[in-house]
Amino acid sequence: MSEQVKQIHSAWIKEDNARVVCEILALLIGYEFDDLDWQAVGTALPNTDDEQADCWYEYPLIGTDEELTLRLAQSVGGSVVSVEVLGEADNALSNRIELVCNLAGMYTICRS
User: How far is CA 87 from CA 46, 69, 103, in A?
Assistant: First the structure.
């Protein structure tokens, strides 16, 4: 990242929840996260390492309401993904982002 961006929230989520978390965070800001978005993120994740600062993957979500940057990295040898959400957010959006990430760390979320 070339400029300093505020971290809204950081957490770990279950690896199986990575796509749905991206989709939900995108929904919160008015962005439609589709198969091409997931192809970019899903292809990059296996080459990440949350223990190395330069081995995280960044993905921008530019919505109609807000802009967020997702930073994601796998926990090597584990089944979780570390997530950082960067950008500007009011308290309501920050709380929603935190809730989504916390739930994705505790439960397996299935799409219907």
Answer: 25, 6, 21
